[in-house]
Amino acid sequence: MNIPADTIPSVKADRKIKINSELKTEFLKRYFRVVHGLFAVLILIQFLPDKLTTDTYTSYVIWFAVGVEVITIIFSALIKKIGSLNLFTDIVAFIYGFLILWTLATAKFNLLKAALFPPPGKVFWQFVDDYDKILVNIQSSVGIILQGYLLALIIAIPLGLFLGWNARLGSSATYISKFLGAIPPIVYIPYGIALLPTFKSVSVFVIFLATFWPVLSGTMSGVMNVEKKTIDSAKVLNVGKFTMMFSVILPASLQQIFIGCNQGLTVSFVLLTSAEMIGAQSGLGYYIKNYSDFGDYTRTIVGLIVVGIVIVIISFVGTHRYIVVEIT
Amino acid sequence: MSKIEINHLTVDYTEKKKSFTALKDVSFSIEEGEFVSVIGSSGCGKSTLLSILEGINTPTDGEILINGEKIKGTGTDRGVVFQHYSLFPWMTARKNVAFGIKQVNHSASRSERYKIADEFLDKVGLEQFKNKYPSQLSGGMQQRVAIARALAMDTDILLMDEPFGAIDAKNRTILQELLLELWESATPRKTVVFVTHDIDEAILLSDKIVMMTANPGRVYRELKVPFDRPRNRSELVQTKEYNQFRNNLLLLFYSDIADKIGGEEVVL
Questions:
Q1: Which residue ranges make up each domain of chain B?
Q2: Does A235 touch chain B (CB under 8 A)?
Q3: Which residue has the higher pLDDT, A16 or A324?
Q4: Which CATH superfamily does the domain covering B1-73+195-268 fall into?
Q5: Could you tell me whether strands B218-224 and B208-213 are parallel, antiparallel, or unpaired per DSSP bridges?
Q6: Alpha-carbon torsion A248, A249, A252, A254, what sign?
Q7: Residue B103 and residue A243: Cβ atoms within 8 Å?
Q8: Could you report the per-residue pLDDT of A248-262, keeping only the tens digit for each?
Q9: ipTM for the assembly
Q10: B55 touches chain A (CB under 8 A)
Q11: Domain range spanning residue A102?
């Protein structure tokens, strides 16, 4: 076939333009978003004159916003799926929008009571200023959780395996654990304070209870729901009792056990912060309660945000851990 | 003395106060190194019979002797392949096989077990899938792993409960030939009890076919399969003898059903 010589380069050029324009729209889709407009607005309004007479720490808001914006741009380049990118930028846009309203309502127009509603800059400043104190309190809270949580796992999992495997014990134990598990662990606190020497040990005890029942019921129902064909195929391999329990029943019911563990972990933190507000001398609950008693609502807000962050991280770790069980 | 002797086996199930006889006075014997298929329509108790051989169920009456000894529960002398893929989903193919080996051979080290496992996975053609989990394998591949595990355990007796029943026609053919080849090439040959409802499968594989009938489950006929080994499916199915034998078997199969629905016995 004879192709006129001059058509070939023009086709090529056409294609090049087409690719270029595709790249351009792709680039615009990725980087030309409402979120960046909101960022600009947020920065610009910081330069309006303050109506609030106390220090508003405007530079902290700017630094925070710039930091978030840098992360957003990096993520815009890294996240491949447009859907996930939309989700991410929408969340950031929400944060910017919230900060804009907050700045305007407090620092710039002073519409709200300054003692109850500190400007955003002050909260950021407080966060940086109290950094080490917050860390100590996180450490204290997480330490108590780990003690109570691990203790509960160590006792509840083997007990659940044993009870679940013994059909008769298991069915009665299910009802008993349903009853005891229904009692909110926090109501044990007054009795716990009478029983145990320190408030810390009471907290550990409450966490223990909060974790113990969900993990025990999870393990028992996991064991009782192991498929008959799994048990039969282990039986015909002639496995011993120990192997049956730890190499067959345990891994087969792991899914359910994890559900119990996650439930326990999230509830634990919620409970602990509540418990700390009652009588503790450290911890995040104490931090919030203590400063709100003194009318320091900037620190109260900081505490609330930290509790939110820690719980999100804990439940994220809880649901995304990937444990490969290597039992031979 | 036969390898396996089944003596007057009776099994009654009681469900919701209703008693149901799954097996009634079943007796036959299996020689060492013999491949025996148990066939019959569903509900004839062939799987119940096998579950007692496996040691998962206990009979109401009668007994099974292996090497002259009465069986009590499961044993390391029997390897089992179920219809529904019986692999452990949290172990890779290799681990599943190695786990089986460990139960019969406690002295083997982990690397020795893996070596044996690899050898048998090679034999069933799964060289490239050793580190895959059962969920990553097709039904046919999972059944290959189950066969590899049963063979790697190196038991005297192999019990197979409709092992290819849930596999598509093409793969079933391939697996039947694989099993035939592995069994015929082994020395000494293993004693196999193979439950199936597929007549062609039974003829191709077995030395003896035990035909069972339902309500209550009992032995209807025992037939020797008169074809020389090693067998080749494509050659075998073309012979006149094969077709004659198959037709006889089918007639028996249907006459049994005719009995059930009240018809007259077909005279052969």
A1: 1-73+195-268
A2: yes
A3: A16
A4: P-loop containing nucleotide triphosphate hydrolases (3.40.50.300)
A5: antiparallel
A6: negative
A7: yes
A8: 999 999 888 888 888
A9: 0.82
A10: yes
A11: 33-128
